Amino acid sequence: MASRDVAFWKEAINDEMDSIMSNQTWELVDLPPGSKPIGCKWVFRRKYHTDGMIQTFKARLVAKGFKQREGIDYFDTYAPVARTTSIRILFALASIHNLFVHQMDVKTAFLNGDLNEEVYMEQSEGFVLLGNENKVCKLVKSLYGLKQAPKQWHEKFDHAILSDGFRHNNVDKCLYSKTCDDYMVIVCLYVDDMLILSDDMKGIIETKRFLSTTFKMKDLGEVDTILGIKVKRNSGGYALNQTHYIEKVVSKFSHLKIKDANTPFDSSIKLEKNDGRSVAQLEYASAIGSLMYAAQCTRADISFAVSKLSRFTSNPSVEHWKAIGRVLGYLKNTKELSLQYSKFPAIIEGYSDASWISSVGDNLSTTGWVFTLGGGAVSWGSKKQTCISHSTMEAEFIALSATGKEAEWLRDLMMDIPFTANNVSTVSIHCDSQATLARAYSGVYNGKSRHISIRHEYVRQLIQNGIISISFVRSSGNLADPFTKPLTRDLVRITSRGMGLKLLK
User: Fold this and answer.
1) What is the pLDDT along the chain (505 residues), one digit of tens a residue?
2) How far is the C-alpha of 239 from the C-alpha of 340, rounded, in Å?
3) Pairing between strand 349-355 and 337-340?
4) What burial letters (b/e) apply to 368-388, b meaning 16+ CB within 10 Å?
5) Is the dihedral of CA 230, 409, 403, 345 positive or negative?
6) Which among 352, 314, 306 is positioned nearest to 481, based on CA atoms?
7) What is the helix (H) or strand (E) element at residue 118, kind and residue range?
8) Where are any strands of DSSP class E within 265-336?
9) How far apart are CA 413 and CA 420, in angstroms?
């Protein structure tokens, strides 16, 4: 209130209170004997556009949910959100089928949920009613900060959209689809951010009309930014980039004296566990979190480096910090890269790879996989294996099992999306190990590999049921290679282009 932006903050506070009062979020009552009210506080935040300009001033009245007691004023708290993989698949399908993609935002989403428990809250600062100073707010609807708020909001939205003829996707409960005579429409929900896809503008207009009559909505028109990811549409399809986010992260860690790098990880360095004192552990964890968000959204090319470096979060050393600086230098050098989708190919292809005993100290191998659709990566992973493999073949087979698991999920997702339901075929997975290929198609069980027998049986079942097929690819053409080991500059460029990471034309 003492800042130069006081007029904007007052307007934001009044907007928030108007939403709360019009929503009949609480009623003033005397506090029942034996009950204890929770507190509340105002939280202020500036929201920015992806170019760094101020978008809005946001004020939120937040309940002090950390004072709630389980079993008394809250029970279940789980609420699902759409997977980022699902969001990428939708953009790939929008590129292939030339779909319209619009965006909506739910104003004060969590205020819509109905509360089943009795929760009492103190009156908010600056809005204590004269003559009722000793009364408390009995919450009728949920409020930001309450433990159960996300769950109650999702239940309310779920019930509302299903009543309009939409149905769940079987594997991602935050994807809803509806098929009418003249259009098909998909709604994807991530907390209060919403994507609406349709092959006809009529489907988008009617869905927006329904949502606007049910909730207080903000129509953002054609999609521009989702979860901090900039979306651009061109003649070929959609492109996703995090240029502004990367600039923000590089600026945050500028004290590391970041130098441009051509690869995310130096292949000549072997990182080991730090037995000495940790160096800026909290800041290291923050750096890993910042890099993980880029790696999980659009920058598949840094997945291996982030996976590797995250293993030292509890006790980082100077060497680990140097490696973090290297990843940031690579991102700074390649910040303009976008994950681009086009019309072809219209089928999902997978790549699987493993690096045998790549983890110094515990002798564990690394699994890597990537799936592409519409010329761009839609799903990827780089993970340390959980069991010791006795040979390269076993490590590759463990990786193949993890890749098959993801392939099954992707296939099930696609089979329940109206635009692709009728033309989902067997997912082709490419592997660069002939021995693994022979083992996968062999019905003979070898007792020497009994510690991976469940994985062996699982892969065979996926092949027999027509869910996956496995084919050989040379290591030079395996797009999963950068997820298991550090590569040279030329190979990083080639695999990145193969995954759809390109400069926008």
Assistant:
1) 888 888 999 999 988 888 888 888 888 888 888 888 889 999 999 888 777 788 889 999 999 988 888 888 888 888 889 999 999 999 999 999 999 999 999 988 888 888 888 889 888 888 888 778 888 889 988 888 898 889 999 999 999 999 999 999 999 999 999 999 889 999 999 988 999 999 999 999 999 999 999 998 999 999 999 998 999 998 889 999 999 999 999 999 988 888 999 999 988 888 888 888 888 899 999 999 999 999 999 999 999 999 999 999 999 999 999 999 999 999 999 999 999 999 988 899 999 999 887 666 677 889 999 999 999 999 999 998 888 888 888 888 889 999 999 999 999 999 999 888 677 889 999 999 888 888 888 766 666 666 677 888 888 899 999 999 999 999 888 999 999 999 999 999 999 999 999 988 7
2) 4
3) unpaired
4) bbbbbbbbbbbbbbbbebeee
5) negative
6) 352
7) none
8) none
9) 10
Taken as a whole, the chain contains a residue count of 505
Residue whose entry in the numeric block shows the structure tokens 């995310």? 264
Per the CB < 8 A criterion, the answer to whether 302 and 482 are in contact is no
Peptide bond into 345 cis (omega under 30): yes
Three-class secondary structure of residue 217 per DSSP: strand
Q: Are 231 and 341 in contact (CB under 8 A)?
A: no
Strand ordering across the sheet containing 120-121? 26-29, 136-139, 120-121
Q: How far is CA 84 from the centre of its chain?
A: 4
CA distance readout (Å), 193 to 59, 87, 174, 228, 345:
18, 12, 11, 11, 29
> DSSP string spanning 53-83?
-EEEEEEEEEE-GGG--BTTTB---------
Residue 235 tokens read as: 């003649």
Please tell me the distance from the alpha carbon of residue 394 to that of residue 254, in angstroms, as a whole number: 42
Tell me, letter by letter, the H, E, C secondary structure of 149-167: HHHHHHHHHHHHHHCCCCE
- In the chain, count of helices (H) and strands (E)? 12, 21
Q: d(Cα 385, Cα 132) in Å, to the nearest integer?
A: 61
Q: What's the Cα-to-Cα distance from 334 to each of 75, 201, 388, 493, rounded to whole Å?
A: 46, 36, 36, 10
| Two tokens, residue 321 | 């910090």
